[in-house]
Structure formats: structure tokens, C-alpha cells
Automatic annotation (TrEMBL), chain A:
Family membership: Belongs to the amidase family. GatA subfamily.
Assembly information from the UniProt record: Subunit of the heterotrimeric GatCAB amidotransferase (AdT) complex, composed of A, B and C subunits.
Annotated segments matching region Disordered: 17-38, 222-246
UniProt keyword Nuclease present: no
Protein name: Glutamyl-tRNA(Gln) amidotransferase subunit A, mitochondrial
Keyword match Nucleotide-binding: yes
GO biological process: one example: mitochondrial translation
GO (cellular component) term, any one: mitochondrion
EC number: 6.3.5.7
Automatic annotation (TrEMBL), chain B:
Family: Belongs to the GatB/GatE family. GatB subfamily.
SMART domains documented for this protein: GatB_Yqey (SM00845)
Main location class: mitochondrion
Subunit composition and interactions: Subunit of the heterotrimeric GatCAB amidotransferase (AdT) complex, composed of A, B and C subunits.
Entry-linked SUPFAM superfamilies: GatB/YqeY motif, Glutamine synthetase/guanido kinase
Name of the featured protein: Glutamyl-tRNA(Gln) amidotransferase subunit B, mitochondrial
Top EC class for this record: ligase
Keyword GTP-binding carried by entry: no
Residues covered by the Asn/Gln amidotransferase domain: 339-481
Keyword rRNA processing: no
Pfam families assigned: GatB_N (PF02934), GatB_Yqey (PF02637)
GO cellular component: glutamyl-tRNA(Gln) amidotransferase complex; mitochondrion
Compartments, record wording: Mitochondrion
Length: 388, 486
């Protein structure tokens, strides 16, 4: 994986990059596996294991799943305990599951989706029961065998239709929608107007939290300690911290810590961090407005309203890029890869990426299904039908 | 709002002449001080704040979540929703690079302590509580053990701390000290902390600013004095700092917003950090800990479980048992003492004055000698009752009763009656035996008898001493004084 989960390609690692095993044999060069949990996706794609765990803060399970041609599931925030997981962005971090099939992923998920007193953000049994009741009331079980999705409404969010989408991706999206319609689902267009803010909001909040979470690696209680002796007695302590952290962290991690530290400073906080928190709420409310199921976190016991059951859109703007740097983008462009995955992370809602065919040069393409907070079981059920 | 008390009229040394000159022409400017306190109170909880790790190495795990609620004793309100924040800085005293604390949404707001005649003041001063926040304690930094190194004891890191922030309502060092003492009494009494300044379970930061008569009391630039670890140091630091600020202003300079330390040896404060070098704490909402919501029912339950508060307790015990205020206050200073007193009184056998004086002189003497807390001693109401019974029934003399107390506090598990028997103690109440001893003594000392008969009544003491010696202290002086030489 990328160091501390920071990356979208699994290239920021002291062990070297992870190579995508799903690329066709006549493909001109090694392809990125996606990241940050690229190792987990590659291991599943290469047949080394049936399921693998990953961590998904802004798409780190879904993006490599899409590029490696496997299933990658990010559950609702708080479904799986984060105890033992090295924190990146605590308010976004989820443990995700990768596998060859939705059924495998689902079985693994059900085994680890339990309450845990050691993680205060992990849903208690009480909250789980409340969500279960809410979901059961809102949606009767499927009755028709031929049209199992009849009565189900799938939304196609207009804001995800961006210029950068590759042709293959657009084709996969179209056929995915057709497939769901053929199973009886209604396909409607929806709007999530604050989606365009998602990327800057995500990078502000995730990096702010990362700079905080990684502060513990100062060489005293945690992390390696620089042996270099600071020359000047007066700046001894701060120079020692600087040496330790400059030596210990990789370039990408240092870049993100610096950005995250900056947005939290008293001078920049009102300009970046505070508005990002407000925008995050608006993004989450976009989803609430789109879904028929009320949000168990925010809406109390409101009954089912107008809206869709799930959203369908691509996991990535295109298939896996080359590792050799011939498709070298700027650092900012590298962050743009996350545009399709971060909104669900910001809203804390479940999202699953499923394989949706291959490009003309044999590279896998993934489609994402996203559902309301707590609606994980329905989401996996629908994903299973989409893949069948 | 603030009735400003004029407390000092300090002329700084370097402006002594101008002050003198002014004294003849215009009235010298009257300086006043504004003081606010931040008290850091270590909770007597068994566990750390956000960790199942024990707060004390030898304590079994337990939950103490109602402790913060007991701050209701300050008459403030527990907030229905409170939340935690991270305060970032790099220092060896906290292992995470940040401290988990509360800033924007603290658990408690409001409340007050009213200082007055009970504190020896001739006026009343209401000190309002601004807020009360839960936070993690830092590791203990140990300086100067290994030259060039600072040692960190992480056992204290993460222990639950409550910071009580007062409004800047105090005007003298004296008031500040009284406020701290009152807070200490109250917090010990409700069992949230032992508030021991030497051990660091109560630590104090003080904000000091000065202003001239007629100005807004909050118009001065405040300096924060950190880590004042005794009442004496708090007083000294406030007086030294207000004198310094007045001197700075009178010399035509301005006071900078600073964090300062206090050197008790030189009685001066010194610069630790100016505003320019103050760290940017980069506060952010703690994303790993959801907001804390408390219900009204929970608050009520905590309120109902709270012990009787000191002011009411003092009034009730003083009145009900006819004791002096001082006696009751002395007993209240030792946790568990009033309970002991009342349990012994509940037997209905003893005189309140006698019990109180026994507790405050004999028992407190032993506790002080042993450097022990009553709660940690072997003493029970039953034992005290037995000792006082033995004394009242003339089974032992008061000297022997003290000896019993010492042995019982040493951990002797025998009953009081058994101890008395083992020592062979028994007050000589056999009057005929006593008469024989006295008769022998009188025969032996005819000169002293003559002296006494001649009017030297003090000769009696000579005989009392002789009788006590002959009976090895088992006779009760009163008995044979009553049976005076016929």
C-alpha cells in the first residue's frame, strides 16, 4: 500500500510500486494497481487470496478494485472497527473488503461488521438495530424473480458526467444502467449540486486530520528517531523533531502533512478548514436529498420519502495508467483521480466498486454503486445483481 | 459588575521620585489588579480518560464517568452536548503530538464560588466560573536528574483532568488564594480529586493584569503565570507580577502578552514565552471521539448522589452538635472525618465536644505523625466508640486511651477490651487499696504533710505524683483528690 495510505496508485512505498496483475499480456508496460490499498486489490486479482482487507479514506479500496478488476467495498463509516488501523483521516477512515465476487465480499463483511468498544466511532449494537428497523420498514423484500429490482429506483448523478471520463468508462456506465433496468429498476437522473466541491473539501479535511494523526511520530514515544545531532543548542528540540520527521516520512507523506498543517493554522483555518467542514455537510445533505431512505444519523425516524435507492456512476475516470511515468500527470492531476470516490467518503455512506468490463486494450473498468447511510446490505444485494 | 477593590498603590523603584512629587501635587494613580485562575484538577478516576489503562498502577479497572458531573457542586450546568478538541504541539510530555481537551463545547459552564467572612474577608467577592473542561493530563516531565536530559513519566499522560476556568473576578492575591483553598475543600469533599498541590493533582495557572482607577478592569494586558504549585507561591507570584506590570507601565513602556514563570527565591516573575513565540495550537474537533450527550435524568441522578455540600454541612454540624465553627471546619478538612464523627455520635453515648476534640487532637496528631489520610488508616467508628467507652467507664486513663489509639492505628487487630487486658491496665477503682497506698505515703512524708496543712496547697501535686508513681499510673487522680487527706 501507499505509505500511511497516502496515494492513489500504490507507488509511494519503500518496497517499490505494486504492479497491476489484471493488465492484458500484450499491454505495453506495467500498469498501476491503484491505491492506496493496491496490494490488497492486486493480491485478489492475481488469485493469491479470495478476500483481502483494505483501508478506504477517500477511495483507497474502490479505485484499486476498479483498476484490478475485482470487487471493492467501502462500508458505511462506523460499520467495521478501526481499532488497530493506523489512522489517516479519522472522520473518513473505513476498513473495506476486496474480493473476486460480491458474495465473498459480503460474507467477509458480515463477519467483521460488529460493534467494538475500543473504537468510539464504531456503531453500537443499538445503532445497528435502529438502522436495521429503518431499512426493513422502508423497503419490502424483492418479490419478482425475473425482475428482482422492480420498485427499486437507481439514480444517475449528472455531476459525475465529467469531460475527463474515458469512452470505455462511459460505455461501461451505460451498459451498467441498462443491466439494472433490465432487472426491473427505474433509472432516473439526479443532481448532487455540491459534488464539485468534494475534492478540495476532501483534501482539506483529510490532510488536516492526517497532519494531526501523524504528529505522534516524533521519535520520542512513536516512530524512529534521527541520530543526527543538531548543531545549535538553542534549537535543539525543534531541530531534533525536524530531523526525525524529515528522515522518517516519505515525500508524499511530508507533502500532505505540510498541507494539512497549513490549513489548520490560525491564519488559514477560517479560509480553508472551517468552510470545508460546512461544505462537507452540504455534500452529505445532497445525498440525503437524493435517497428515499432517511439518514439514520440525522433524520431521526423519518419514514421513506421520494428519491432513489442507490446511485450508479464510474469508480474512476479511466482505466489504470502506466507505472513507467509515460502517462505522468502533475501532482494536482494525480489527486483528481479521487474525484469519483471522495463524495461517498465525505458523506460516510457505503459504496462498492464492481468490475464492469474491459477497455479495448484489455484494462478493467469499475462501476460504483452508492447507497444511503447504513444501507450496506441492500447495496451489496444490488451490486450482486448488477454483476450476475 | 466588578466592585473594584483598591489593593495596591505601588510605586516602582525607578519612578519613586516622580511618585513622591506627584504625592504633593496630584493624587498618585491608584493601581488595581485583575486576576483570573485556571485550575487543573486531576480526577480521582481509576482509568485514564480515553483508555482502559489504569490511572494508578495498582487500582482495579472501574468506571468513574459520573465524576465530571459532580462539578454541579459549583452551581454551574452540565452541558447536554459537549465535544472534544485536539490541541497540537510538539513536546515530550504528550505522546500523540496533541492533547485531547475541550475548547468550544466544554462539559460545564457557569457556577461560582462566593468568598466572604468564612474566608476571613470583610466583604464578599463572587468569583464566577467561566467554563469547566475535561482534558487529558500530560506526562510528568522530570528535569535536572540527568544533566542535559528531560525524563518523561508517561503514567500520568492521559489521566483525566478537569480545567476550571474562572472569570477575571478576583482583585487581590489574597482572594486568589482563598478561591483556590475553597475549591480544594469543595472538590475533596465531593470526592472528585484529592487536590494535592504538592503531588500535582491540583495545579494552578494565573492570569494577571493591572489597571488604573476608573479604567475598565479588563483593559490591562494580561500575562499568564504557569504552574504555581502552592498557595504561598500563588500569592507571591501575583504580587510580584502586578508590581512588575505597574513598574513597566509607570516607566512608560507597555506590558506585552506573555507567559511567565515565578521564581520564589528572588520573588520575581520571568519571561517564558511572548505572544510572538506562542505556539499555534491548531485546534480541531477530535474526530475519533463522538460528542458526549448527557440526559437530564443522568444529571439528576448525579445531583442526587452528591454528598452534602460543605457550606450546608458546616452549618448543620455546627448547629446540631453545638460545636464551634473552627472545630467543624478542622474536621471537614480531612475527608471522611465528619462521617466518622457522626457515626460515633449516632451511638448516643458520647459528648460532641469530647468526640470532636479527641478526633482533632489525638487522631489528627497520629495522622500527621504517620503522614497518613484518615481514609487510609485502620480507624473505624467502632474502634473510636470502644476507646471512648473505655475512657468513659474508667477502664483506662486518657494516657492509656492514647496508647490504645496508637496500637490500633499500628494495625493491632485485637479488640479494645482485649488490648486493655493484655496490658494489665485497669484503672484502680478499688478504693481500699488506694487508701492503703496513700496511708503508706503519708507516713513516709510527714514534712510535706505539715507543709500542706500549713497552707501550701501546692504540696498536693507532690502527693498526686507519688500516688501515680506507686500505682504505675493506674489510679485516676480525680478519685483520690476527692478522698483528700482527712
Amino acid at each position: 500500500m501507499d505509505e500511511f495510505g497516502m496515494g492513489s496508485k500504490t507507488i509511494f512505498s519503500i518496497h517499490g510500486p505494486t504492479v497491476n496483475p489484471a493488465a492484458a499480456s500484450d499491454d505495453p508496460g506495467p500498469r498501476a494497481a491503484g491505491g492506496s490499498s493496491g496490494g490488497s486489490a492486486a493480491a485478489v486479482a492475481a488469485g493469491q487470496c479470495r478476500i483481502a482487507l483494505g483501508s478506504d479514506t477517500g477511495g483507497s479500496v474502490r479505485l484499486p478494485a476498479a483498476w484490478c478488476g475485482v470487487v471493492g467495498f467501502k462500508p458505511t463509516y462506523g460499520r467495521i472497527s478501526r481499532h488497530g488501523l493506523v489512522a489517516y483521516g479519522s472522520s473518513l477512515d473505513t476498513v473495506g473488503v476486496l474480493g473476486r465476487t460480491v458474495d465473498d465480499v459480503r460474507a467477509a463483511f458480515q463477519a467483521v461488521s460488529v460493534s467494538d468498544a475500543r473504537d468510539m466511532t464504531c456503531m453500537t449494537q443499538q445503532v445497528r438495530s435502529r438502522i436495521d428497523r429503518l431499512v426493513a420498514q422502508a423497503r419490502p423484500p424483492a418479490s419478482s424473480v425475473n425482475k428482482p429490482l422492480s420498485g427499486i429506483c437507481i439514480g444517475i448523478p449528472a455531476e459525475y458526467w465529467v469531460d475527463e471520463l474515458s469512452d470505455t468508462t462511459v460505455d461501461a456506465w451505460r451498459s451498467g444502467a441498462d443491466r439494472l433496468a433490465s432487472l426491473g429498476a427505474d433509472i432516473v437522473s439526479v443532481s448532487l449540486p455540491h459534488t464539485k466541491s468534494a475534492l478540495p473539501v476532501y483534501y482539506t479535511i483529510a490532510l488536516a486530520e492526517a497532519s494531526s494523526n501523524l504528529a505522534r511520530y516524533d521519535g520520542i514515544r512513536y516512530g524512529r528517531r534521527s541520530s543526527e545531532q543538531p548543531p545549535n543548542e538553542a534549537t535543539n528540540a525543534s531541530q531534533k523533531y525536524a530531523n526525525t520527521r524529515s528522515e522518517g516520512f516519505g515525500d508524499e507523506v511530508q507533502r500532505r502533512i505540510l498541507l494539512g498543517t497549513y490549513v489548520m493554522t490560525s491564519a488559514a483555518c477560517q479560509q480553508f478548514y472551517a468552510p470545508a467542514q460546512k461544505l462537507r455537510r452540504l455534500i452529505q445533505q445532497d445525498f440525503d436529498a437524493a435517497f428515499a431512505l432517511p439518514n439514520a444519523m440525522h433524520s431521526g425516524n423519518r419514514s421513506r420519502g421520494e428519491g432513489v435507492d442507490a446511485l450508479l456512476f464510474p469508480t474512476a475516470i479511466g482505466p489504470a495508467p502506466k507505472l513507467d511515468g509515460s502517462s505522468e500527470e502533475s501532482r494536482v492531476e494525480a489527486y483528481v483521480n479521487d474525484v469519483m470516490t471522495v463524495p461517498a467518503s465525505l458523506a460516510g455512506i457505503p459504496a462498492v466498486s464492481v468490475p464492469a468490463g474491459v477497455s479495448k486494450n484489455g484494462l478493467p473498468v469499475g462501476l460504483q454503486l452508492v447507497a444511503q447511510y447504513g444501507d450496506d446490505e441492500f447495496l451489496l444485494e444490488t451490486a450482486s445483481r448488477l454483476c450476475s | 459588575m466588578l466592585s473594584v477593590l483598591r489593593i495596591r498603590n505601588i510605586s516602582a523603584p525607578n519612578s519613586a521620585c516622580s511618585a513622591l512629587r506627584r504625592a504633593y501635587t496630584t493624587p498618585a494613580p491608584k493601581w488595581n489588579t485583575t486576576i483570573g485562575l485556571e485550575l487543573h484538577v486531576q480526577l480521582s478516576a481509576k482509568q485514564k480518560l480515553f483508555s482502559p489503562a489504569s490511572a494508578k498502577w495498582d487500582d482495579p479497572a472501574n468506571s468513574n464517568i459520573d465524576l465530571p458531573g459532580r462539578f454541579l457542586a459549583l452551581d454551574g450546568t452540565v452541558q447536554p452536548t459537549s465535544a472534544f478538541d485536539r490541541k497540537h504541539y510538539f513536546y515530550a510530555d504528550q505522546p500523540l503530538g496533541y492533547q485531547i481537551t475541550q475548547s468550544a463545547r466544554p462539559i460545564g459552564r457557569g457556577g461560582q464560588i462566593e468568598l466572604g467572612s468564612a474566608d476571613g474577608l470583610s466583604y464578599t467577592r463572587r468569583v464566577r466560573i467561566h467554563q469547566l473542561q475535561l482534558e487529558q493530563d500530560t506526562a510528568k516531565s522530570i528535569h535536572n536528574v540527568y544533566p542535559g536530559y528531560v525524563l518523561s513519566d508517561l503514567n500520568r499522560a492521559g489521566v483525566a483532568l478537569v480545567e476550571i476556568v474562572s472569570e477575571a473576578d478576583m482583585c487581590t492575591a489574597d482572594e486568589a488564594a482563598h478561591y483556590v483553598r475553597r475549591m480544594q475543600t469543595l472538590l475533596r469533599h465531593i470526592g472528585v480529586s484529592n487536590c494535592n498541590m504538592e503531588e500535582g493533582s491540583l495545579r494552578c495557572d494565573v492570569n494577571v493584569s493591572v489597571f488604573r482607577d476608573g479604567d475598565d478592569p479588563l483593559s490591562g494586558t494580561r500575562c499568564e503565570l504557569k504552574n504555581l504549585n502552592s498557595l504561598k507561591v500563588i500569592r507571591g507570584a501575583i504580587e510580584a507580577e502586578s508590581a512588575r506590570q505597574i513598574a513597566v507601565i509607570e516607566s512608560g513602556q507597555t506590558v506585552g502578552q506573555e507567559t511567565r514563570g515565578y521564581d520564589a527565591r528572588t520573588n520575581t516573575t520571568f519571561l517564558q514565552r511572548s505572544k510572538e513565540t506562542a505556539p499555534d495550537y491548531r485546534y480541531m474537533p477530535e474526530p475519533d471521539i463522538p460528542p458526549v450527550r448527557v440526559t437530564e435524568a443522568w444529571v439528576d441522578a448525579v445531583r442526587n448522589a452528591m454528598p452534602e455540600l460543605p457550606d450546608r454541612l458546616l452549618a448543620r454540624v455546627t448547629e446540631h452538635y453545638g460545636l464551634l465553627r473552627d472545630e467543624v471546619e478542622t474536621m471537614m478538612g480531612e475527608p471522611g472525618c465528619i462521617a466518622l464523627f457522626e457515626a460515633v455520635m449516632a451511638t448516643g453515648k458520647h459528648d460532641a465536644k469530647r468526640v470532636a476534640s479527641w478526633i482533632t487532637s489525638e487522631i489528627f496528631g497520629q495522622l500527621a505523625y504517620r503522614n497518613q489520610k484518615l481514609a487510609d488508616s485502620q480507624l473505624t467508628p467502632q474502634l473510636l466508640d470502644d476507646i471512648l467507652d473505655a475512657l468513659a467507664n474508667s477502664q483506662v486513663t486518657s494516657a492509656q486511651a492514647k496508647q490504645l489509639l496508637i496500637e490500633l492505628m499500628d494495625g493491632d487487630k485485637r479488640k479494645v477490651g482485649e488490648l486493655i487486658e493484655a496490658h494489665g491496665w485497669r484503672v484502680m477503682d478499688d478504693q481500699s487499696e488506694l487508701r492503703n497506698i496513700i496511708a503508706v505515703l503519708l507516713e513516709k512524708h510527714p514534712n510535706e504533710i505539715a507543709d500542706y496543712r500549713a497552707g501550701n496547697k501546692r504540696r498536693m501535686n507532690f502527693f498526686v505524683g507519688k500516688v501515680m508513681g506507686a500505682t504505675k499510673g493506674q489510679a485516676k487522680p480525680q478519685d483520690f483528690l476527692d478522698s483528700k487527706p482527712e
